[in-house]
Amino acid sequence: MSRDIIILECTEAKAEGKPTSRYNSTRNKKSLNTPGRLEKIKFNPFLNRRTLHRELR
Fold first, then answer.
1. What is the spatial distance between Cα 4 and Cα 27, in angstroms, rounded to a whole number?
2. Which residues face 51 on adjacent strands?
3. Which of 8, 17, 44, 45 could staple 23 via S-S, CB 3.0–4.6 A?
């Protein structure tokens, strides 16, 4: 399979002292367009707004 399962974690929740939200997603292993960590805007239910989520390694 050429796709990896990754975990996306909220970057803003730690600074505010709230629980972090996590999402599971997949990414293409061989893609040259995303060589670094993947970042997506997802909803954080603890902060009740959309925040930046970054890939965990």
1. 5
2. 42
3. 8
pTM above 0.85, yes or no: no
The Cα 28–Cα 35 span in angstroms is: 10
- pLDDT tens digits for range 24-36: 999 888 888 878 8
Geometric angle at alpha carbon 48, from 46 and 49, rounded to 5°: 120
> In the CATH scheme, what is the code of domain 3-55?
2.20.28.120
- Rounded to whole angstroms, the Cα distance separating 23 from 39 reads 12
Q: How far apart are CA 38 and CA 23, in angstroms?
A: 12
Amino acid at 45: P
Task: For the chain, give every domain's residue range.
Answer: 3-55
pLDDT at position 56 over 70: yes
